[in-house]
Amino acid sequence: MKSKNNKFAIRTTDLKKIYLTGLVKVYALNGINIEVKSGDIISVVGPSGSGKSTLLNMISALDRPTSGKILIDGVDITRLNDKTLSKFRNRRIGFIFQSYNLINRSSVKKNIELPAIVAGMPKKMRGKRVSDLLELVGLKGLENRKPTTLSGGQQQRVAIARALINEPAFILADEPTGNLDSKTGNEITDLLCEINHKKGATIVAVTHDLEFADKTRRIFHLRDGLIEKETEGFSYNEACKRA
Amino acid sequence: MNVSEVIRLGFGALKERRTRTILTILMVMIGVSLITSLDGLGAGFDNYIEEQLNTLGANVLIISSSEGGGGGGFGPPVQGPETKLTSQTVRTIDRVLGIENTVPFYRGAVTIKSGSEEKTISVTGTDQSKLKYITPKISLESGSFVSETDNTGIVLGYNVAYPADLDRPFAKRGQIVSLISFEVEETGGGRQTVKEKKKSFRVQGILEELGNSQVDNTAYISTSAANSLLNKNNIYDGIYGITRDADENEEIEERIRKIYGKNIGIISPKSLIELIQEIVGTFTAFLTTVATVSMFVAAVGIITTLYTSVLERTREIGLLKALGYGNRTILFMFLTESMTIGILGGILGILTGVIGAVLLGRFVLSSFGGSGASALNPVFLPIELIEVFILALSLSIIAGLYPAWRASKLSPINALRKE
Ligand SMILES: Nc1ncnc2c1ncn2[C@@H]1O[C@H](COP(=O)(O)OP(=O)(O)O)[C@@H](O)[C@H]1O
Ligand SMILES: [Mg+2]
What we know:
The structure holds two protein chains of two kinds.
Chain A: E1 8-21, E2 24-37, E3 41-45, H1 52-59, E4 67-72, E5 75-76, H2 82-92, E6 93-96, H3 108-119, H4 123-136, H5 152-164, E7 170-174, H6 182-199, E8 202-206, H7 210-215, E9 218-223, E10 226-232, H8 236-241
Parallel strand pairs in A: 3-8, 3-9, 6-7, 7-8
Antiparallel strand pairs in A: 1-2, 1-4, 4-5, 9-10
Helix pairs in contact in A: 3-4, 3-5, 4-5, 5-6
Chain B: H1 3-16, H2 18-56, E1 60-64, H3 87-94, E2 99-114, E3 117-126, H4 131-134, E4 140-143, E5 153-156, H5 158-161, E6 176-186, E7 192-207, H6 213-216, E8 218-221, H7 223-229, E9 238-243, H8 249-260, E10 265-267, H9 269-312, H10 314-322, H11 327-368, H12 382-409, H13 412-417
Parallel strand pairs in B: 3-8, 5-7
Antiparallel strand pairs in B: 1-9, 1-10, 2-3, 2-6, 2-9, 4-7, 5-8, 6-7
The structure holds adenosine-5'-diphosphate and magnesium ion (MG).
The site of magnesium ion has 3 residues of chain A, from helix 1.
């Protein structure tokens, strides 16, 4: 299944997505062509409804495109069955959502372990990784707390730790700072930069936060389901790279 | 997949919705406990009836002078044609195909005196060597039966010898007791006099307690002694016909009917008991239906609870699917939840069902006021309890299937978009 052209970690060709809501067709993506190198850190910006989340959902195999190809490390994931996609998401992708999506009845530790449990990771290894990750995200010693007892920033850190537990090659974040104040948002941004740097994970983040976008290496500007333009993040070198 | 961890995730969800989960478990518990206790009591009642059958002897027909006349004493007196039971009748019945033996008897109420104590009892005069055919479990606590040629010997039933309201025996073996019978005589002109007849007997034996209140409250003397004491003029009160096989009772009854028509009373304890069993069986079948319906109600409860849970946990399910939990894993997780409800409800239901049946068995008996009878003991066969448990478990799995299937089919993006 490996294509000849596999130097890109993510590559989409003429990616389209049409949603059918009743009788109305919504053209969410109208032919997206992007190429992302392994280990890169990229942001996607654009007005609300421009298709940012849809693009991210396609790349992360949460949903299937109407047409077009999505090559992840050279494999066209649009051709994979649901079961394989499940496994693909579990092993290769770390998700970060705007609203954290933590399970409130479960402890911080349990939340972080969720992807590892379904991957069948042995308990001992899970425990070790959880404590390493809590240290990385700056929540050492909070493994037994319930998410609701944590601040928004802390909850997003838990979600980041959860995204990292299976050591995925990709981190896909949909407005990770959207629910946070700017100071906390900056801290999360720096944490993502640090992860990109330390773990070498390819990061694609949808954001409204232009300060954040400016710290990433490339910025895709989306409008009406198309890449309107691409710019470089001016603070990339001094901010993200040195984090 | 880490199965035990996934199961624990399901438990966590059940615990979070504690009240609803407990109510659902309760519904299952009620259904299971109803089925369990009814089964147990039904089987216990069958046993009880069977025991009665055993004290009576199944292969017996009780023949009395007229229909409804009963075994010579109970039941309302029936006017109409009747057959005087004489030694000729005994010979006729003895020749009926399938009758192995005939045991004629006299029966009446007498006052028995022992020293300063006296009480009213029932006395039966019959060939005591044949009592074992009529009540197979009859046995002597002490002494011996009275032979047919002995007109002064008496055997006392257990309650006669040891009355419940007396702190010492009423009479001991070897002691002399007297029996007094009363007879109302027409003395012309519509006047009546009561004639007393008194006779002394020596206690020759005392019966073991049989658990059959009629036998336990009777004293037995020889046939001829009863004939003269009770002034029966050789007219028997009844004849026990011992049949070859209890299963033939009906045909044999038919044969006797051919001879005497409706002018004779025939009771087959076996068919009587079968009738009771049929009535009780119908009743328990009805109650079992009610119990089964309540099981299905419980199943609907599981569906509602889990389905509500699926709706409430849409986001969580979406998240899990995004994180790589496959359809089957989600299905398994929800089935674990419904099975937990089934297992807990099943176990608790069986426990409360068993306890409830035992308590109810005691209550039923005390409300019958059974004279010293043993309790109505419900019977629980392990295999039946396991069957009930499996029924609860399978119903809970089936009830869980739909919500679990819905959960597994949720699309992760739609589920995550839901707020
Ligand atoms: N599941 C869906 N069903 C129908 N329409 C959708 C769905 N998801 C997104 N859309 C529509 O597609 C368009 C792009 O949405 P989205 O990708 O969420 O935009 P953004 O994330 O840039 O705000 C919007 O018009 C939105 O209403
Ligand atoms: Mg969006």
